[in-house]
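Could you show me just one protein sequence together with its fold in token form as a worked example?
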Amino acid sequence: MPQRRVRGEAEPRGVPRSGGEKNFLEFMFPDADLRLPHIRTTCCFAMIFTLMYNLSANAIAFGLQVLTASGHYDKDSGLIPGRGAVLGIAIAVLSFIVLLHTFSRRGGILVNNAFAVVKVGGLLVMVCLALAYAGGRFGGPGTAVRNNFTVDVWETNRSDVSSWSRSLTLCKYSFWGFEQPFYILAEAKSPRKYFPKYTVLALLSTVLLYMLLNISYLLVVDKADIIPPFGEIPSSANMATLFFDRLFGDDHKKASRAMAAIIAVSIFGNLWVMTFTAARVKQEIAKEGILPFSFYIATSYNTPYGIWRRRMSKTPVLDEEVEQAPTAAFGLHWFTSVLLIVLISPIVDPRKSYSALVSLYSYTVISLLGCWVSIGLLRVKLRKTRWHWQERRQYRPWLSPLHAIVFGMATAFMLIAAFIPPGPDSPFLKSVTGIAWYIVPVVGISAPLWGMLWYWGLLCYEWKIGRHLVVSREAYWQPDPDCPGEFAQQAEIIDHTWQITLRSEMVNDFERSHAIAEKLEGSAIEQQRHSMDGDDPRLEGLGRGNKNLARAHRVPMMSERRLSDSFE
């Protein structure tokens, strides 16, 4: 969270800002020797998140389920689903969702909520059906209860470390998603009041539902249907499809197609929600000025629905009151998602493409970033910083820092164990996944290096053009009416400025760029830096139609300013 002083208070305070891990890592890993202390960390995070945090895998899964539901593919036939059809559907659904999100921000939130209700309701229905089956309904209880709930239920014929670590990583992929609310904190209503309790409630509900669902699978699906005989390589199986096959086994094909349709709807909801949140984080990355066309990606634009409402309104509507969305950030998210689909297209079997993308996402976004954040939490707790976080923080979790230690050790183990070759009968061999076992860990562990290369490239670009980037982010805060004593972000104004660097000091800019910034003060080209005080009189008219703050302009130093966000 950005820290600043509020008039009348001695200590700086933070106001919730969108971005999730980006904000955490920038706070936990600054470099005081740099002109922009956070920029190196930002570059490393930006490359991982921009390229890897996308929905390519889920879009391919959606294509597979659509083909199954429509009867164009039968998984029991032994044939490979059409690669062109699956990838085409994947790109089409990504395009459709991005277009709808850019059409209306409010509509996107309403659809998010609707899918949340549908998916939670679906899980509850499955739990009730499993209990009914175990009680004798639908031809139950069958052999599943007798075979699954025994003393040897946890026995397995897989003992190699690599298979265990990769399996646990994929399990985390299923349970992941708790980080989504942190990505859109600036758009939450009264985040200090509502966010903590509802986030904890959502996590507890998710854990409870997932545990009940796993028990439901054990009540209906016999483990012998999933675990192959010793020495054989297991094949992929969709647990939800097996679940409904056992419940309604009279017409196997109809049950499979119906279940595929339900899964496709669930995947569509996942695509919808994650597109909404991922675009906000990529917009936050662009606000730092490190991406091509950053200024345009960082800006929110009026939505077509907002423009239509203003035209249809009988009363005048100010520009700042028109609904906005990060249109260019949605475009960036769409581009990176489609790019990964294209890069993975040489794999003939789209089922293996899905497996490869899920493994890559799990290794980089879940394990690598998770380990990085855990180390940062320990660093902040054990190291004295200028913010005195340990003395100022209001929330003190129980058993701290045990949570960060356990999670950091677990993710570090999975990162390292992935470099151990899988056993001869492992489901992670190339014959099953479609790619060599070492591809995912090598690509994943090198992801932070991409960010360092990008950072060095940015320094070289500054040296080449003789200018250096100066980024100013002015957050407009207002007192939160629902939470006395707290503030909420209403808008943010960004400045991207390329200041001239003196030729005689060009080389030193790489080592002590902050010293150059001091020497540039008083030169012919200077940047007026405004305070970020919530009582700044220049910001008083923002909510009353002050258009000057929202209009981009250029000055001789190559500066651009624009209202980036405006929240209701």
About this structure: Strands lie at 3-4, 13-14, 301-302, 324-325, 467-479, 487-500, 559-566. The first helix runs from residue 21 to 28. The chain has 20 helices and seven strands. The chain has two domains: 8-454, 464-566.
